[in-house]
Write a structure and sequence with these properties.
The structure is a single chain. The chain has helices at 44-60, 71-82, 88-106, 116-128, 133-152, 179-189, 195-204, 208-212, 257-277, 298-311, 319-332, 337-344, 351-356, 368-375; strands at residues 10-13, 20-28, 34-41, 219-220, 225-228, 231-235, 238-242, 251-254, 363-364. It is α+β, with helices and mostly antiparallel strands. The protein folds into 3 domains: 10-27 and 35-60; 71-163, Tyrosine recombinase, N-terminal domain (DNA polymerase, domain 1); 179-375, Intergrase catalytic core (hpI Integrase, Chain A). The protein has a 4-stranded mixed β-sheet. The protein is elongated.
């Protein structure tokens, strides 16, 4: 057996196979049994190099079990460990990031070999492909969390993803309907089951979840007012009523006359539908329920709006873009930005309003008159 070099550890040649091997004592396990790590190779120099790397891993606290683990395996393991802790929407996003981006881009790399340069190249490729900064933040953030899981498992000495900033990404411009497009949308929405929902979203700037959580008890059509106090949330794949996005999202709005008229007609049609279904109707008091009276899934709202926008010749639009459109139309009508923020339930333009506002929420009237001027009052008789 050849003499081992200083600091190399126990290197020897296996007489049965002719391969060189090395053993490294790494202490005892929780039961008191000695633990040894093994490496092997065709030459003594190869094994000596592996043994030195093994020494470094031990000094850095890296376990031996995950030396060959790939980024793909790590990400899937992280998803399994955290799936029970995440809301369904968050889990869906993380799963999409892992399986559509991280695994195809970095999955083949061993976790212990992943470098900050690897992560930087991956993100730069996404930037070059046109992904928005917000999307790349999700990619980097998910990788950071997966590598933190690896740190806790003793698979890596440091989280290289934390060393890489998110690229700037392309500049994106939000989309909103012009006034002629908005008129075309409302014309195409006539007699559609979602006609009133589309009008409320366009004239009041509701978030989709706020819109579908509205109850008739939230409306005072005689006074022309509406309260927003809940939103639809998705948990474990199921939708349910939950809190609004922020405390400031709980608000009370004055409705445009045309929106009041549309909601009144919508209530008549809903009453007729409830009577026709009889015992099959599940009365939850919702303004925009399914055909049976239950919570409407936001995905069905998206599909319904797409039908109407395509019928109007506008292509595909998302319900949240009606909120953007309400903002743009109100701004174009001369409504101050601070009042638009109140209509939308935002605090970003008037931080002091959330600090100094009285506990009783005032009725926000900023949207009503401008929307009636833009779209006209309803015809009577």
């Amino acid at each position: 057996m050849a003499r081992r070099g200083a600091g190399e550890g126990s290197i020897f040649r296996d007489p049965a196979t002719g391969r060189w091997r090395a053993l490294l004592d790494v202490g005892v396990d929780p039961t008191g049994r000695r633990r040894r790590r093994k490496v092997s190779g065709r030459t003594r120099a190869e094994v000596a190099a592996k043994l030195r790397a093994l020494h470094r891993d031990v000094e850095d606290g890296i376990s031996g079990e995950g030396r060959q683990m790939t980024v793909a395996a790590l990400c899937e393991d992280w998803l399994r460990h955290h799936s029970g802790e995440l809301a369904q929407n968050s889990l869906d996003v993380r799963t999409w990031v892992v399986r559509q981006h991280l695994i195809p881009g970095l999955g083949a790399r061993r976790v212990r070999d992943l470098s900050a340069d690897d992560v930087a190249r991956f993100l730069q490729q996404k930037a070059a492909a046109g992904y928005a900064r917000a999307t790349m933040d999700k990619l980097r953030g998910t990788l950071v969390q997966a590598l933190r899981h690896a740190e806790r498992q003793g698979l890596v000495a440091r989280n290289v993803a934390t060393l890489v900033p998110t690229p700037a990404g392309p500049k994106t411009v939000g989309r909103s309907l012009t006034l002629p497009q908005a008129h075309a949308l409302l014309a195409a929405a006539q007699d559609h089951p979602l006609e009133a929902a589309i009008l409320v979203a366009l004239t009041c700037g509701h978030r989709p979840g706020e819109l579908l959580a509205l109850h008739w008890d939230d409306l005072d059509l005689d006074a022309g007012e509406l309260r927003i106090r809940q939103a639809i949330v998705r948990t474990r794949g199921k939708i349910a009523l939950g809190p609004t996005k922020t405390p400031s999202s709980r608000r009370q709005l004055r409705l445009p006359d045309l929106t009041v008229a549309a909601l009144a007609a919508h209530r008549v049609r809903q009453d007729e539908q409830r009577c026709a279904l009889g015992e099959y109707w599940q009365d939850h008091g919702l303004v925009f329920p399914t055909g049976l009276g239950t919570l409407l899934d936001p995905a069905n709202l998206r599909r319904g709006l797409r039908q109407v926008t395509e019928r109007a010749g506008l292509g595909r639009w998302h319900p949240h873009e009606l909120r953007h459109s309400a903002t743009s139309l109100l701004s174009a009508a001369g409504v101050p930005l601070e009042q638009v923020a109140d209509v939308l339930g935002h605090t970003s333009t008037r931080v002091t309003s959330s600090t100094y506002r009285h506990p009783t929420t005032p009725t926000v009237e900023a949207a009503a008159a401008p929307m009636d001027r833009l779209f006209g009052s309803p015809k009577v008789g």
